[in-house]
Amino acid sequence: MKTHLQPANPNEQSDTLLVFLPGAYLKPDEFEREGFIAAVRERHLAADALLVDADVSYYYEQTLSDRLHTEVIEPQRAKGYKSIWLVGISIGGFGALIHELARPGSVDGIVALAPYLGRRVLGAEIKKAGGLRAWQAPTGPLPDEEPDRKLWPFFQQYLSAKPSKNLPRLYLGFGLEDRFASNHKLLADALPPEQVFTIEGGHDWPQWRQLWRNVLDVLPLPAVGRPSKQTITQSQVAPSQAPKATPWAIAA
């Protein structure tokens, strides 16, 4: 996989790395063009950014998880990054999630913006059952090998009163008119409301830009000159700084 590093400080490596996975048929440099890297720098976060050319063919060939791990995650860990977050848009969000399925605990956090979450028919089955809290995954042999068969049971781990320490923190953002919104809402109900953001609109860069800026405001990332940054809750945001993307607890 081709990658391009955007360091927070050109003179030294940060301890934290944000790995960006683009949507289908999008180019990794679009994250820079659309202000994603600028948003990190504006907040003076000590987090380097790595733009990954995760071509859609990797998903069709089902090689994304292995290649992402062996060509990106492992080499970056070897370089000394202590904390690695995956940031994915659309199918890139799906890629981040299925990577966690294949390599549990290998990253520290995931930001999934408008992620593809599998087939609508499976989402409809979960909704009919009353949502993820009520749905029971079928036992026995699976009818097919599609990743979403394992993805939804994985999401149920976030419902636990005491999730595993190896379970990465997951942030979700989506437009309320997004074509995948029905599945997004199912996942949203499994996450803490302060980790879910919504916005009016559909499946495009204007929504993703705003969602990223607002999710970025609450991510527990280190700030330049400080070893750590406390998570900002929605109640701590001053009225003049209130994000346009709405936390799920308010939007629901």
How is this structure best described in words?
This is Pimeloyl-ACP methyl ester carboxylesterase. The protein is of the alpha/beta class and 252 residues long. The chain is 33% helix and 16% strand. The chain has a single domain (3-217), classed as Rossmann fold, CATH 3.40.50. It is built from ten helices and eight strands. The chain has an eight-stranded mixed sheet, sandwiched between helices. α5 (91-102) links the parallel β4 (83-89) and β5. The radius of gyration is 17 Å and the shape is globular.
- Report how far the terminal alpha carbons are from each other: 39 Å
Shape: globular
Number of domains: 1
| The CATH homology group name | Alpha/Beta hydrolase fold, catalytic domain
Low-confidence stretches: 228-244, 246-252
Task: Give the amount of beta strand, in percent.
Answer: 15-25%
Strand count, sense and barrel status of the largest sheet are: 8 strands, mixed
CATH architecture: 3-Layer(aba) Sandwich
Q: Report the C-alpha radius of gyration, rounded.
A: 17 Å
Placed side by side, the strands forming the largest sheet appear as 1-3-2-4-5-6-7-8
Number of strands: 8
Arithmetic mean pLDDT: 89
CATH fold annotation: Rossmann fold
Order of helices and strands: EEHHEHHEHEHHEHEHEH
Protein name: Pimeloyl-ACP methyl ester carboxylesterase
InterPro entries: AB_hydrolase_1 (IPR000073), AB_hydrolase_fold (IPR029058)
Pfam family, one: Abhydrolase_6
